[in-house]
Sequence to fold (234 residues):
Amino acid sequence: MKVILTLFLSFFCVTTIWSQDVVMDTTKAVDTKYREDQFYLAITYNLLAQKPNNVKQTGFSSGFHFGYIRDFPLNERRNFGLGLGLGASINSYNHNIFLSENTSGEIEYINLSDADINYTKNKFSTYLLEMPLEVRWRTSTAEEYKFWRIYTGFKVGYLLASSTKFKGDLGKIKHSNIKSFNDFQYGLTFSAGYNTWNFHLYYSLNSILSSDARLGEQAIDMYAVKFGLIFYIL
Fold:
C-alpha cells in the first residue's frame, strides 16, 4: 500500500510540474505585441448622388477594392488603434450622360434621354490608387481571431486612368483619360461586422468630375456613394 501511495504521489507531483511547464510555455507563446495587419477585399454597389435634373443611373454600377492596411495599436489591450494602408479600386457607373468629342477635340456632355438616343450600354469607369486611414476598435485578443469590429476613417484616391463606353444608335464609342475627371477623390469610410464578413460604406466629399463638366448650363456635380461588403484577411 505504501508503495502504491508513494508511486501515486510521485506521479501526481511529476504531472503537476509538467502541467505547470506546459502552461508557462503556452503563456510565453502568446504574442502580447500583436497587430491586426490585414489584406482587404471589398465589393460595392456604386451610387451617384446629387445628379443633375433628369439624370439617372441604369443597370448595375459596381466597385472592386483591394489592398493592405498596417495596424498601429494605441492602448495596452491593443483593441483600439489606427490603420494606414495602400490599395487600389476599379469603379464603374452606368447612367444616361453621353460623353461626345466635338471637332475641336473637347468633350461635351449630352443627356441621352432628352436627346432621345437609344442605347444598351453607357458608363464611365475610374481606376484609383487609394490610401485609407482608419480609427479602429475591435474585440480581438492575441489568441482570438474571430471578433467584432468597427472601423471609421478617411480615404483619398488618386486617379490613375478613366474610360467611357457607349453602345447604341450612334454605334460603339470609347474615350479614355478624360481631363474633366478630378485627379483626387476622397471621402469618409465606415466598416463594421464580425470576423470575415463586414458591411462597408464610402461617402465621397468631392465631385467625381471637375467644375468644367456641364450638362447644358448645369454643372455635373455628382458624388460617389459606395456600399457593400468588405473582407479582412489576416
